[in-house]
């Protein structure tokens, strides 16, 4: 009986990459001078991004070590044979096209509807055909868009395009 050689999961490489980028970003934002005496300073967003990348990188690393390799290989093979959704380069191309459309619709529609539509479209691109739940996708797309709009407009006092709602 031949023992299959276990290759590291691509998630492990991605996790290491995210941890590296997080460390570099955090190190780079140490030199940002704070201009705000109170509240959110100019280093807040880079540090927040570094922290989020750290969390995602750790989650990917932990998940890559917990997954059994044989089940992962079988799942990948079955997904490739049964999936009729976008995979690989077509999914990337569709994502880039949806980002361009999002940027074009941001001013006429406004931040809230354009962001919700972009999130919905991105979920349709990334979801497999059998797992499409349109109502769930709409709710998941609209809720963060509304939260981000409230956060930026009311807490950070940053104006976003109002579009048809304003």
Keywords:
transmembrane; DUF1468; transmembrane helix; membrane; 2 domains; 166 residues; Tripartite tricarboxylate transporter TctB family protein
How many domain regions? Answer: 2
User: Considering DSSP H and I runs of 4 or more, what fraction of the residues is helical?
Assistant: 55-70%
Distance between the termini: 68 Å
**Number of beta-strand segments:** 0
User: Main sheet?
Assistant: none
Low-confidence parts, pLDDT < 50 over ≥5 residues?
A: none
How many helix segments?
6
Radius of gyration: 20 Å
Mean pLDDT: 81
Q: Give the overall silhouette.
A: flat
Strand content: under 5%
Strand and helix order: HHHHHH
Structural class: mainly alpha
Would you give an account of this structure?
There is one protein chain. The protein has helices at 10-28, 44-66, 69-82, 89-109, 111-126, 134-155. The chain is mainly alpha-helical and 166 residues long. It has two domains: 10-82; 89-159, no CATH class. The model has no long low-confidence stretch (mean pLDDT 81).
Short note summarizing the structure:
This protein is 69% helix and 0% strand. By secondary structure, the protein is mainly α. α1 packs antiparallel against α2 (44-66).
């Amino acid at each position: 009986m031949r023992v299959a050689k276990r290759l590291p999961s691509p998630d492990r490489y991605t996790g290491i990459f995210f941890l590296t980028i997080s460390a570099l970003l955090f190190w780079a934002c140490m030199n940002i001078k704070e201009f705000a005496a109170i509240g959110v300073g100019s280093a807040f967003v880079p540090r927040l991004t570094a922290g989020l990348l750290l969390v995602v990188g750790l989650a990917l690393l932990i998940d890559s070590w917990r997954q059994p390799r044989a089940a992962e290989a079988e799942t990948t093979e079955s997904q490739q044979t049964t999936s009729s959704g976008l995979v690989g380069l077509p999914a990337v191309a569709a994502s880039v096209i949806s980002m361009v459309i999002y940027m074009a619709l941001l001013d006429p529609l406004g931040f809230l509807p354009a962001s919700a539509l972009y999130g919905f479209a991105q979920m349709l691109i990334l979801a497999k055909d059998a797992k499409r739940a349109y109502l769930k996708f709409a709710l998941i797309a609209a809720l963060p868009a509304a939260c981000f709009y409230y956060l930026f407009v009311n807490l950070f006092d940053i104006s976003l395009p109002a579009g048809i709602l304003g």
